[in-house]
Amino acid sequence: MRLLGIHHVAVIASDYARSRDFYVRILGLAVIAENYRDARDSWKLDLRLPDDSQLELFSFPNPPARPSRPEACGLRHLAFRVTDLDAMVAHLQREGVACEPIRVDEFTGSRFTFFADPDDLPLELYEAPAR
Q1: Secondary structure of 18-71 in HEC code, one letter for each residue
Q2: Where would you tag: which of 2, 18, 43, 123 has the fewest CB atoms within 10 A of its CB?
């Protein structure tokens, strides 16, 4: 048995329309399917990245806040691979998304930065060569 990769990551949004706009329009993820689940009063949006990995965006009425800072045990952040970090940071800044200063990974030499989604979920851009 072996793992083949990450199929999807699930994110719960407090404001579905705002988060949908962020992930689709600003980050450019492609919509696979969008469904309203009446029994749960919840939206489920399936999004695809260029490498075919997926992000599921959910909405639920009154989801509890999840602390991001200080860092707590558990999933820390979601990182997206990019080939042109400067261009992506410039795009995010034009959209009003603040990015931390670009840093260099001391072990790989790759450049990266952090930013946040509309619910303050920490996201990372990690510059890596195209495959």
Answers
A1: HHHHHHHHHCCCEEEEEEEEHHHCEEEEEEECCCCCEEEEEECCCCCCCCCCCC
A2: 2
Q: In total, how many domains does the chain have?
A: 2
Residue 103 domain boundaries:
76-131
Q: How many CA atoms lie within 13 A of 44 on its CB side?
A: 10
The size of the chain, in residues, is 131
Name residue, tokens 């707590």.
72
CATH of residue 110's domain is 3.10.180.10
Q: Are residues 80 and 55 in the same domain?
A: no
Residue 77 CA: distances (Å) to CA of 44, 94, 123, 125, 126: 21, 23, 6, 11, 12
Q: pLDDT digit string (tens) for 3-22?
A: 778 899 999 999 999 999 99
